[in-house]
Amino acid sequence: MKRIKCVGILTSGGDSPGMNAAIRAVTRTAIYNGLRVKGIMRGYKGLIDDEIVDFKTGNVSNIVKQGGTILKTARSREFETKEGRRKAWDNMQKHKIDALVVIGGDGSLTGARIFAAEYDIPVVGLPGTIDNDLYGTDTTIGYDSALNTIVWAVDRLRDTASSHERLFFVEVMGRNAGFLALNGAIATGAEAAIIPEIATEVDQLTELIENGFRKDKNSSIVLVAESETTGGAMGMAERVKKEYPQFDSRVTILGHIQRGGSPTASDRILASRMGQQAVEALLDGQRNIMIGVDDDQLVHVPFSQAIRDDKPIDRGLLQTVKILSI
Ligand code: ATP
What is the DSSP code string of 12-32? Predict the structure, then answer.
């Protein structure tokens, strides 16, 4: 096996708070171990377009507390083609990068897996996404920060909702995963969470209004995961207008505000530990794995497992929301 001398780092897909802490940890652990580090700008796009810079310890000073990613991020259709990945490989050779750390969501890790297989490159992934939808890890870098942003926003909505006796649908991110909606609902004392995982099994709106919903409450907040399956917060409000016109409903879509802001302490610590582990795993000869966390222990999850699209959600938490909102 070829000895690794130079590690490239990139962030790809949607940004998430804590990515910078991960970049810092990868950079410093690599330098500590005598490796050179290359920062690849704008994800796979920068690898293809040769936007690659030398990284020293100073490049990552004072970034542990910053949201976003200093490496910028992008989505690259070109990397999904063989020709695109060929250009990326040529640039890796040009810069003598012999291993990669990819920080991103399931799309980014899918790309990493394909690239690693095609060119026999050691690649380690870090789960960088607010959605928490990667399999094999209890949590992802950015999830806790996004959850805290949701709590901050919903607490404010509660003040206004209770002054007007309204039903508020708050749409949160998560793509096809309900983690943010469900745990956000518990943390804010919301009346319900509408999540994609059970959307095809249960009519969650009917259940909420006809079974659990106490009409004498002076406000109700329902967190809705953005998703085609749930129809999102707008879809819910339209249904209420038609089917339950006695309710005055309002919609708030939190949108990209959930991605921004300084990472929480938990995310900074998780990203720092995972970044260190990524480099140590590469030096240990590991490849094609994502670093995950299981019961507070760092674990190595093969890419093939991490990007399965069925990370299970704890359905018992729906019952928690229901019981606690009576
Ligand atoms: P988020 O969870 O925040 O959306 P993500 O990593 O899932 O992040 P995607 O847009 O799905 O975001 O993927 C990011 C990039 O990964 C794509 O723009 C593309 O360059 C690369 N990628 C995704 N899927 C593939 C694939 N099948 N083959 C090669 N590259 C891919």
Answer: -SS--TTHHHHHHHHHHHHHH
326 residues of the chain, pLDDT tens digit each? 789 999 999 999 999 999 999 999 999 999 999 999 999 999 999 999 999 999 999 999 999 999 999 999 999 999 999 999 999 999 999 999 999 999 999 999 999 999 999 999 999 999 999 999 999 999 999 999 999 999 999 999 998 887 777 889 999 999 889 999 999 999 999 999 999 999 888 899 988 887 656 666 767 899 999 998 889 999 999 999 999 998 889 999 999 999 999 999 999 999 999 999 999 999 999 999 999 999 999 999 999 999 886 789 999 999 999 899 88
Instruction: Please tell me the distance between residue 11's alpha carbon and the centre of ligand 1 in angstroms.
Output: 11
Same domain as 106, residue 180: no
276 — phi, psi (to 5°)?
-60, -45
Q: How far apart are CA 300 and CA 284, in angstroms?
A: 12
Collapsing DSSP to helix, strand or coil, 145 comes out as helix
Pairing state between β 36-40 and 52-55: antiparallel
Ligand 1 mean position, distance from CA 225 (Å) = 21
- For ligand 1, whether the C-beta of 15 sits within 6 Å is no
Contact status, residue 49 vs residue 172, Cβ threshold 8 Å = no
Specify whether 284 is catalytic.
Answer: no
For residue 223, what are the domain limits? Answer: 145-259
Residues 10 and 137 in one domain: yes
48, 49, 110: residue to mutate for ligand 1 pocket, most atoms within 8 A of CB: 110
What CATH number does the domain containing 297 carry? 3.40.50.450
For ligand 1, is residue 78 a contact (CB within 6 Å)?
no
172 and 53 together in one domain: no
Residues 268 and 205 occupy one common structural domain: no
